[in-house]
Design brief:
It is built from 20 helices and twelve strands. 63% of the residues lie in helices and 10% in strands. It is elongated and about 120 Å long. It binds adenosine-5'-triphosphate and magnesium ion (MG). Adenosine-5'-triphosphate binds next to helix 5 and helix 12.
Length: 611
């Protein structure tokens, strides 16, 4: 849950978030990196600082005009001075307001420029990460952290930084003006202001803590309600017979809340009370000091001074949050830099070798390949040696978890071997640029992802310049043309998460069509038909048969019928190849493969006898 009190503006006191402190302890932010962010913005920054200073100075002029009105214009009936001072007061207010707008505009300009740059860089770098990174990070976490942290950082640049600068310049300007008006009153002020700041902050922090506690309790109670009133919760309550106990617990939580609610209200009231006493007492003490002190102090001086003293309160209170703001801002930067510094597990080659997809032969070779997932104990693949000659097919079978998908995914370089090498036409995959590899290797798996867009655009992802004729041709080959013709808007139908829902088999045929458009030399089919019923499977299989002709194909299948005709079949156990040969040979050997085939046909017999 984002802390509700992280708004960097305003004078409300804040406390340092322990999570922020921990973040900084773990990965501190060097100042030169912060400075680097501002590259190209220095001129704007300078102007911004000038505007902020000017605004602070303008704000100081008002009490002096007030003094002139009270001491000279009013008692001596000096109309010219009066009009001049009044025009000055109004004029300065207008200038101040305009300068404020300008300041906001500049600050946002800087903040947006910095953020745009950072956002794009972070996006690109996160995208470069390997599949392992995405698998090991909770769905939604990357997205929300990226969005929230970058938005937070933008606030740092547009609001926090400017409010610190504004508060600082304003406080200094007011302080200087106070001394200029009367140094003796300033000394008095110096004595009464610090305790006033201290008390104000103390009371406000107290109230903040109580409010936070109340929010925590409220959230807890909500969870309780959601849990026990949901279907599962209700079922559990009834079957376990714990209704009374739950009601009891709820009653206790509710009772706690009653007490806290009262304290929250009272704390708010107390805070207001303390503030009003302070704001009454501070000028009063100045009147007293002015009266008891040396004579000759003018009325205007006293009024102007108390005005300044009241006005200095807000910026100084704001400045008292500098420490907290500083830690919170640096922690945000530290997190964002963390994304920028992520080193991709699968790195792009610095000097890629280009394999022309039109000329590539499409030979895939694994030499002594071993792989282990980053935080796994044992290898998923050990000593894999394979050659799939151009245009030939390889079938992979093996128990679940034996490493088939891992092996297949390595051909599109979702991860790199730890030992050995994988080559296409003799070139190590690590020397081929990812965009080039994507042209060479096509993957159709159980999971076909369709973006929330029109069907046409989803297909065009594979080949942006394809004509409609081409699209229809591949749809025909993939046995999907009929289905698409019957869609309400044909190729313009929205598909994906919130669009038209294709069935599993239809989605897979779209994937086949998409792969046909790309026309890769090498094809990886990972369980492409295993989730389908047998009727749909026949359709998809027919589409796949069209797809594989003339390409180097690596097929993983639980249904042995899909790989029976492969030129070579390998059987995997615990990440090792234990049998290899074509169907005939493996049947003759009488090992695991034969067992699988026999078990499969028994299943088929059983299935048929059930119908
Ligand atoms: N990202 C990952 N991080 C850690 N371990 C993983 C990861 N992906 C897979 N594994 C493990 O590696 C082993 C091989 O997984 P893989 O998906 O290659 O098996 P498979 O043969 O394709 O199985 P199935 O037939 O169920 O698809 C499994 O033990 C799996 O738990
Ligand atoms: Mg698999």
């Amino acid at each position: 849950m984002p802390a509700p009190d992280k708004s960097p503006q305003g004078v409300g006191p804040r406390r340092v978030d322990p999570a922020d402190r921990a973040q900084l302890a773990e990965s501190p932010v060097p100042m030169y990196r912060v400075a680097e962010l501002m590259n190209g913005q220095y001129l704007r920054l300078l102007v911004l600082l000038a505007v902020i200073t000017a605004t602070a100075l303008i704000g100081v002029a008002n009490p002096f005009l007030l003094k002139a009105v009270i001491d000279d214009a009013l008692p001596h009936d000096n109309d010219r001075l009066l009009v001049g001072a009044v025009v000055g007061m109004i004029g300065l207010a207008v200038i101040g307001a305009v300068a404020g707008v300008w300041q906001t505009w500049l600050a946002n300009l800087i903040g947006q420029a910095v953020m745009h740059d950072l956002r794009v860089k972070v996006f690109a770098n996160v995208q470069r990460q390997s599949m392992n990174f995405f698998k090991h990070t909770k769905t939604g976490e990357i997205q929300s952290r990226l969005v929230n942290d970058i938005a937070g950082l933008q606030t740092v640049f547009t609001s926090t930084a400017t409010s610190i600068a504004t508060n600082f310049t304003t406080a200094v300007a007011k302080a200087v003006a106070m001394v200029a008006l009367d140094w003796r009153l300033s000394v008095v002020s110096m004595i009464i202001l610090p305790p006033a700041f201290w008390v104000t902050r103390k009371v406000a922090l107290l109230r903040r803590d109580i409010t936070a506690e109340r929010q925590r309790l409220l959230a807890q109670m909500n969870t309780e309600v959601v849990e026990s009133m949901g279907v599962n919760g209700a079922l559990l309550t009834k079957t376990l017979g714990i209704a009374e106990e739950r009601a009891e617990r709820f009653s206790r939580a509710s009772q706690d809340l009653v007490g806290l609610d009262l304290r929250t209200q009272l704390a708010g009231r107390w805070r207001m009370g303390v503030m009003s006493v302070l704001f009454a007492a501070m000028p009063a003490i100045i009147y007293l000091a002015a009266g008891l002190g040396p004579s000759g102090m003018t009325l205007g001086t006293v009024v102007a001074f108390t005005t300044l003293q009241t006005q200095i309160f807000r910026p100084v209170m704001g400045l008292l949050n500098i420490g907290v703001d500083w830690v919170a801002s640096l922690a945000l930067m530290s997190r964002v830099f963390g994304y920028l510094d992520l080193v991709p597990e699968v790195a792009e080659p610095s000097e890629p070798i280009y394999l022309d997809p039109k000329q590539a032969r499409g030979e895939v070779r694994f030499t002594k390949v071993g792989y282990r997932y980053p935080d796994a104990e044992t290898n998923v693949l050990t000593d894999i040696n394979l050659v799939v000659s151009p245009g030939r097919s390889l079938g992979i079978v093996g128990a679940t978890g034996s490493g088939k998908s891992t092996l297949a995914s390595m051909i599109s370089r979702l991860c790199d071997p730890i030992t050995g090498e994988i080559t296409i036409d003799g070139i190590d995959l690590r020397r081929i640029a990812s965009t080039n590899l994507a042209e060479l290797v096509g993957v159709v798996s159980q999971e076909t992802w369709l973006g929330h867009d029109t069907l046409r655009n989803n297909l065009l992802m594979a080949k942006p310049d394809a004509s409609d004729e081409e699209l229809w041709r591949v749809l025909r080959v993939a046995r999907m043309d009929q289905v698409v013709t019957e869609l309400p808007e044909g190729l313009d139908t929205m598909v994906g998460a919130r669009g038209h829902r294709f069935s599993g088999g239809e989605r897979q045929r779209v994937a086949v069509a998409r792969t046909l458009l790309r026309n890769p030399r090498i094809l990886v089919l990972d369980e492409a038909t295993s989730a389908l019923d047998s009727g749909t499977e026949r359709d998809v299989q027919a589409a796949l048969d069209e797809l594989v002709t003339g390409r180097t194909t690596i097929t993983i299948a639980h249904r042995l019928s899909a790989i029976r005709h492969a030129d070579e079949i390998i059987v995997m156990v615990h990440g090792r190849i234990v049998e290899r040969g074509d169907h005939q040979q493996l049947m003759a050997v009488g090992g695991i493969y034969r067992e699988l085939v026999d078990a499969g046909s028994r299943d088929v017999v059983r299935r048929q006898s059930h119908q």
